[in-house]
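Chapter review. Work through the record for Protocatechuate 3,4-dioxygenase beta subunit before attempting the end-of-chapter questions.
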Amino acid sequence: MTHPPYLYPAYKSTVLRAPSRELVLPKLGPDSVELTSPVFGHAELGALDNDLTKQHPAEPIGERIIVTGRLLDSTGRPVPGALVEVWQANATGRYAHLRDQHPAPLDPNFTGAGRTLTDAEGRYRFVTIKPGAYPWRNHHNAWRPAHIHFSVFGTAFTQRLVTQMYFPGDPLFAHDPIFQSIPDEKARQRLVSRFDLDTTVPEWALGYQFDIVLGQTPTEDA
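Structure tokens for Protocatechuate 3,4-dioxygenase beta subunit:
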């Protein structure tokens, strides 16, 4: 099994939000729903949307990194023109969100959100700050491993996949029920980026590669 189950009691939020009844299909078919949904246009993206370090007057605090990879379909073909969004905590492990009140400093020069379109080869690229781990009260002494959330859109809001990218060698993997909710070890490792020296820019930023393969990269359905 590649994807995590809807209900995974060790991840307490799933107990509240996992569906308890069978799926009821709408009278309109999926194609009809998609035709009436909002769509995306290239003009809506800003020049700095994929560089999270240049969206404010000064540079954010933390380790600058480059995250790049390819969006591929289940046969390995590139998916061009797809909208890829990311959001993350800052270097201290805090989100720029009112509901995040844990005692770590906010960074006035880091909002932690970006987006871009894949190119003809299905490639995306973000410049950002490596996020910190943070507590999340799921269980005693619970900490999330450092991660970046990814959202991949098709041509409408109904065509969306959400997943997370982790960093290699994180000691919190074994203690994180979200990561461990994926039954297959090989599938879990598809969520772990790989350090890449070719992506790394000398004296400026470390580089990480993270490919997203539709149907194979575990996604968040719960």
